[in-house]
Amino acid sequence: xxxxxxxxxxxxxxxxxxxxxxxxxxxxxxxxxxxxxxxxxxxxxxxxxxxxxxxxxxxxxxxxxxxxxxxxxxxxxxxxxxxxxxxxxxxxxxxxxxxxxxxxxxxxxxxxxxxxxxxxxxxxxxxxxxxxxxxxxxxxxxxxxxxxxxxxxxxxxxxxxxxxxxxxxxxxxxxxxxxxxxxxxxxxxxxxxxxxxxxxxxxxxxxxxxxxxxx
Length: 215
What we know:
Layout: H1 4-7, H2 13-29, H3 45-53, H4 56-81, H5 88-113, H6 118-144, E1 152-153, H7 155-178, H8 184-199, E2 209-210
Antiparallel strand pairs: 1-2
């Protein structure tokens, strides 16, 4: 007789639905930290411009985190495109990954509020690091248990591309975060540029081919 643990968490569809929902909510609530400036002192164009300029830290953090979530969502969907099986352990690995997705709005708000503090940059980087670690752990688990689709040619190269992207991303994030010891704004600018490089997809692409008739 099979134990419950052996039959739970088998499908990937519900995992993807939940993950998309969590990402959608996290992306949406990022903007809630940006409040419209309201003050009795705002009585002219110049005073409104000054009030708006004071939102710069929050706008920078918002832009950075929106790209961050977009990049990790893309990495997550890429991984699931090639995965066809799951189990309860993989399900919980994904939930652990989503835990750090939901923390992004908090670390973003923390960073925007204390943007001149190295500790705030460190907390934000830690969030990125843990996201990368959990995504990598999910990949390793799926690879170890042969959960990748069998009808994809060039799967070895695809796996190598995923691993390479993760290593490059985490290395660049670490370098960007370390720049906070010079200046926190330089660090945030570097992290933003790194995210832009990933968004613009300057890295080589692998186009997998599906073998007809194979499942």
